[in-house]
Design a protein that fits this description.
Two copies of one chain form a homodimer. Chain A is built from seven helices and 13 strands. The longest helix of chain A has 13 residues. Chain A is about 30% helix and about 25% strand.
Amino acid sequence: MDKIIYVVGFGPGDKQFMTMQAVEIIEQADLIVGYTTYTDILKAQFPDKKYLSTPMRKETDRCRLAVEKALEGNTVAMVSSGDSGIYGMAGIMLEIADEMQANVEIVTVPGITAASTAASVLGAPLMHDLSLISLSDLMTPLELIFRRVEAAASADFVISLYNPKSRKRVDYLEKAADIIMKYRDKGTPVGIVRNAGRPDQKAWLTTLSELKNEPVDMFCVVIVGNSQTYIKNNRMITPRGYKINEQ
Amino acid sequence: MDKIIYVVGFGPGDKQFMTMQAVEIIEQADLIVGYTTYTDILKAQFPDKKYLSTPMRKETDRCRLAVEKALEGNTVAMVSSGDSGIYGMAGIMLEIADEMQANVEIVTVPGITAASTAASVLGAPLMHDLSLISLSDLMTPLELIFRRVEAAASADFVISLYNPKSRKRVDYLEKAADIIMKYRDKGTPVGIVRNAGRPDQKAWLTTLSELKNEPVDMFCVVIVGNSQTYIKNNRMITPRGYKINEQ
């Protein structure tokens, strides 16, 4: 099997946040396939490459296209932001390649996930156990999403919310905050990063009770602290532990 | 403020998995500070740099050393594996710099966290909501750790276990598996990766009920699938959704 598709997570987008491996694969690929927004980000940095883009939500078509192009003899890089392995293209790519019974090797190339980028901007909010939850109910029952929010809140996880809001989902974030406040103080620190790691990045701090009033949209990652999280010098910090053993 | 400490996550260790930014900072730093195992990994790849290492569990001493060296005028890179922002050095570094009232800027440089690397090896197990839980009770009450395992299990999170076992904690992993099996089928796929992304990497698949018999140690990451996770062609795959809307 010498046909190969690399499923590359490129992090927030700028080359500096890509791994050496991701940069090398993009530079050497015959063809870069991705959602238009992502290929546009890469075109600006790798202008001499050949690109094929498909619209958002056409993931299965995009994967079929990648397989077809690989079978024609192209080394394909299927690209997406963040980590291709966390809410990324790795799974659907494996599923489609299998469905097509294509003799193509699928290699996942991990990247920096959005929670990591957002955390690095805010300070150090992810120093303890963490739940990543997407508030998009496009493919997940809303009841299950809120059950996860409640479970994570009840067990004092730091909670990082992906896809926190869209035009169709205006009140999910407020509902999530209400659920978390059943278990956590309303003054619990919350960090919001819009376009994390991108030129127009914006980051700010708020609290659980104020979260509903914040201008959050689909380009934001929201990080809710655990019971120990605090703000100092405008940085959001979750301590490593619960002070059982002092060092 | 021109004194600066970069808190750099270098992923599994090999340069190919570091971000361009991490490589550049390491190459340009006056001094690289870290736990001995980590500085040894970097020395092999950046042999001309100046290193200072301290033993494991001396994190606060290491941070004070970094601050002192920065105040002397050195640009310092405080290094650790994975993402410096997830169970990493970013938080303690901010805390110590604040405690010392040091006029030093702390910049977090994110890296690929162990769950991302392990997932890329196993297939695509992290395509849906995820909990990261450390089974180390060095600084966290064991009761809280198991409460988190139970909460994550009850709400069908994919669960990635860090520090799954050590010589002192021989039965925590088995207890965690027992808790998860209260909510999830005993045949639920589990992926184990030892030394993910390193030359002696080893990865294999098992099930929840068999997990207790696996040779897991502190160099492993354990990923427990959710109710939808399956194995196909020896790859562990968690589907993106719950098939509400077919595409």
